Amino acid sequence: MKKSLLAFIGMVFILAACGGETTTPAPERLQPSDITLPDTYDEERAQAAYKKSCAACHGVNLQGGGAYPYPITGISKEEMYIAIVQGVGVMPANLVTGEDAENLAVWIAAQ
């Protein structure tokens, strides 16, 4: 009796582990054509946001740093905005948000 009870409990755990999981669909990725950003930026505000949230990995002059040793120049403002708000690779999303993210993206693209 003990063996069949243990076998039953084991089967319950196996079935629960295999069948109860649901996956959440990934959020839809933004496309550059989905975004409209201004052509102007507040340089002081952008530099402050960059220094606070980006420079440690991307270097103080956008030339690359420890975590990302490649320059982040030559990227459109729309692609940069997508990277900032959705993250890319190991970079987490939303390190900078809202109008600051827009301003930062436009500033980086202009460098």
From TrEMBL:
One annotated GO molecular function is:
metal ion binding
Q: Which residues form the Cytochrome c domain?
A: 41-111
Q: Domain of life of the organism in this record?
A: Bacteria
User: Would I find Metal-binding among this entry's keywords?
Assistant: yes
* Pfam families, per the entry: Cytochrome_CBB3
Q: What is this protein called?
A: Cytochrome c
Signal peptide span: 1-19
**Source species:** Anaerobacillus isosaccharinicus
The UniProt keyword set, sorted, is: Heme, Iron, Metal-binding, Signal
Query: Is tRNA processing one of the keywords UniProt gives this record?
Result: no
Listed Gene3D superfamilies: Cytochrome c-like domain
